Amino acid sequence: MKKYKLNEITMMQYIMFNSGMAVSFAFIDIPTIMANKAGTDGWIPILIGGLVTMLASVIIIQLMKRYPDGTLFDLLTHYVGRWAGITVAAIFTIYFLLFSYVGIVYTVRLIKGRLLIETPAILILVMLMIPTYTIARSGLRIIGRYAEFVVFISLYIPFIYIYTYKNMHPLFLLPILKDGWQPVLSAVPSTFFGYIGFVSSIILYPFLKNKKQASAAILISNGLTMLAYLFITLVCFVSLSPDESMKIHQPTIYVLKSIELSFIEQVEGLFIAFYTFIFSMSWIPTLFMMAFSFTWIIRKQDHRPTLRAVIALIVVSMLFFFPTYDQLLTLIKLSSLLVAMKCVSNWKRY
Amino acid sequence: MNLFSWLGRKKYSHTTKSKPDHPLPPSARSEPISLSLEHNLHKLGDLFTDTPDMIIRTLVLPDTGEQAALVYLEGLSDKNAINNNVIKPIAGGIGSIESASVTVGRVGRLREWGPITNAILKGSSVLFIDGRTDAILLGTEGWPQRAIEDPQLETSLKGAHQGFIESSGQNIALLRRYLPHQELKIREHQVGRRGDTRVSIIYIADVTNPEVLKELEDRIRHLDVDVIINTGELAELIEDNPYSPFPQLLLTERPDTAASQLVQGRIVVLVDRSPSVIVGPATFVSFFQSVDDYSTRWSIATFIRMLRFFAFFVAICLPAFYIAVSSYNFELIPVKLLLTIGEYRGSVPFSPFIEAIFMEITLEMMREAGVRLPAPVGQTVGIVGGIVIGQAIVQAGLISNIMVIVVSFTAIASFILPNYDFVAGVRIIRFLMMIAASFFGLFGIVVGLMTLTGHLISLESLGTPFGSPFAPMRWSDWKDTFVRAPLWKMIKRPVSTKALQSIRQGDNKHKGEGS
């Protein structure tokens, strides 16, 4: 019973899919959030959060192994009943919708704020929807290839940050654990919003070509996510003084201001423009998975009508409501809550 | 009246709406020929009205005294063969016709009018004999064809100097010379109701993936067209996504390229009467490879490959980047350069976008003029273009110096890419990029690149991914992309062709390599 044979993805695509989705916009904000919660020890909660997520995702994969050729929804329908499947699919639909919405609006805000100040936000949004539709309509295999490609061409990012070495002062990190474990542990929950992308691994599991690699893949993917966060947080913490770290908005971009090249005056603008590739990972796959969950509920095969409708909806909604960064963060926390709810409800059933 | 009826072609009362068909109706095609020669010749006259190039030579067979008539089309048949190998021996009269006297290679017997008309139209001659119910087919085809020359479109420094020509028989011979192996198989199909074009699918049976072959064969078999004049038409009809600006099948005029693609597990499609062949399944990288890469030193070939990929991005993005930088993202360029650009731009009355579009269109017109004009007149284009684009337009203050540099750089970059069809796609994309950049600056370019990426990775060629080996990532195929690895390292055939036999060579490590 191989329902999704035509849409198989490789292990590499599975890894890139999950990491790309998780990293996307959290990469820009995580240093500030961590600095505010745990000061210069902010990198420790990232490690702890990463390990916790790895554990959780491995458990989920073990559960999914019981029913390897169906999605979570099929699994629930099989064991509990169709309504359980529909409920969870609905939660997923809403969650992915929220996630992709936040991703898109965050990107539009950032582009409008830093690159195209005069351009109406709606135009930027419409522009972004062109590649979104081109890629998301073609199905999972194409999105998998896209994810792979995006992560691959984004490998330049660490090198740019290493170029800021002149302004780095590792002493800023010392002393470690100066306020004890209390602030560090209290910051762990807020790292979860950065790792929350791992839920996609549940949806993607049945599409994975070689199921035996699933656990390894999910560990690698979470490991990559963790490394990315750890890297950027450490870079920001050693480049900015402890007080600056807390005050500066989007330090990930601010740090780049120190780079000067003979042929490019400011790397920042170029970086933001090309970072759109990574940003797109936060909404192209999620929009697809949203459409996928929704079409599962209404028992259709073609996900494209849903996709078109949602894209139109997002564009129209932008005419009336353009959320601020703070509102976006509230939204993402709300969606994390949804996932938590879902995890609890699943736990009861098993 | 239908609102959109004007979109369709105008219909006139005297045109038939039926589909093009075989010249003979189905009932007449299987009609047997008559015993009487006179009756047959009469029927022939009915079938071929207004055919002044048809020759009917009546003969008397000296042995038996039977009346006979030799029918052929002048110009399509080899006159020497007919005179010396058919008419002369028959008139000399020794033995029966099929066994001895006619000295032609291909001889057959035909009983029905359908095959007979086909044979005559394709250059064979047919001998009718009074009192017999079958006619004799004599393979005397000989039509005008040119000699084998250097390929026009794809010149090469070190490759062979033989290009495909307009006859598929000769072309098959050119390929067989490279691969004299019994696993080299040919499947023939007839395509077109009027043209009846012979399309030959060539593959290596124990290397090519049968699924890909079946896909290609199905697509060719389902074609229902009038005639296929050129290979490009066939390619458009069987391509996976005809709306894409990029070709998904490689067209080549070079037998050496075709042969090397065959051994990589790809399939070659020959179209009779056309000098280029289709190679599929192609990938994005196929359009960056040239046959010279494999005969120059690998380090140099690698450098040239990288140059081509760089040129690909320059050809797509450079004018757009200029527009973006000079109208939106000033902060990117160093102050000194910005001042220089400003100094030149100061006297130009147009926005960078108008400037760029104007220059690019001029360049495209010049290129097109150069292609279509006969060679002696073609030089004029170069001179006029050189003067106009070069100095005069800058001195008149219409276009800035920097723009001229940008345009020339773009032009050179697009000429580096070895495949003509692919470059044509790049040109279209360049204009779209310029429009995107004129509205959104650098962000527009990135969104454009994103859409381009999305488009390229969702393309397929005969059901295999076009974006391979980049997306999906196939590391083992990377040996023939940005780098052209040493030949003895390329032990496996590319994964993207789904070849059955993946190993292509043994250990060829150099003996002198310090072991």
What's a quick, concise take on this entry?
The complex is a heterodimer of chains A (350) and B (515). Chain A is mainly alpha-helical and 350 residues long.
Secondary structure elements and pairings:
The complex is a heterodimer of chains A (about 350) and B (about 525).
Chain A: H1 11-23, H2 26-38, H3 43-64, H4 72-79, H5 82-114, H6 121-136, H7 140-153, H8 157-162, H9 181-195, H10 200-204, H11 214-239, H12 242-247, H13 251-254, H14 267-297, H15 304-320, H16 325-349
Helix pairs in contact in A: 1-7, 1-11, 1-14, 2-9, 2-11, 3-9, 3-11, 4-5, 5-6, 5-14, 5-16, 6-14, 6-15, 7-14, 14-15
Chain B: H1 26-29, H2 37-47, E1 54-60, E2 67-73, H3 79-92, H4 97-101, E3 107-110, H5 113-121, E4 125-129, E5 135-138, H6 168-178, E6 184-191, E7 197-204, H7 210-221, H8 231-238, E8 250-252, H9 255-263, E9 267-271, E10 277-280, H10 298-327, H11 335-345, H12 352-372, H13 375-395, H14 401-416, H15 420-458, E11 460-461, E12 464-465
Antiparallel strand pairs in B: 1-2, 2-4, 3-5, 4-5, 6-7, 7-9, 8-10, 9-10, 11-12
Helix pairs in contact in B: 6-9, 10-14, 10-15, 12-13, 12-14, 12-15
CATH topology value of chain A: Amino acid/polyamine transporter I
Question: Runs of chain A with pLDDT <50, length 5+?
Answer: none
CATH architecture of chain A: Up-down Bundle
Uncertain residue ranges of chain B: 9-13
The greatest interface here is: A-B, 36 and 30 residues
Radius of gyration of chain A: 20 Å
The largest sheet of chain B has its strands arranged as 1-2-4-5-3
Number of strands of chain B: 12
Our measurement of the CA-to-CA distance between the termini of chain A, rounded to an integer number of angstroms, reads 24 Å
Structural class by secondary-structure content of chain A: mainly alpha
Per DSSP, the total helix count of chain B is: 15
SSE string of chain A = HHHHHHHHHHHHHHHH
For the terminal residues of chain B, how far apart are their CA atoms? 85 Å
Beta-strand residue fraction of chain A? under 5%
Number of domains of chain A: 1
InterPro entries (chain B): Spore_Ger, UPF0353/GerABKA_families
GO biological process, one term (chain B): spore germination
Organism (chain B): Paenibacillus cellulosilyticus
Protein name (chain B): Spore germination protein
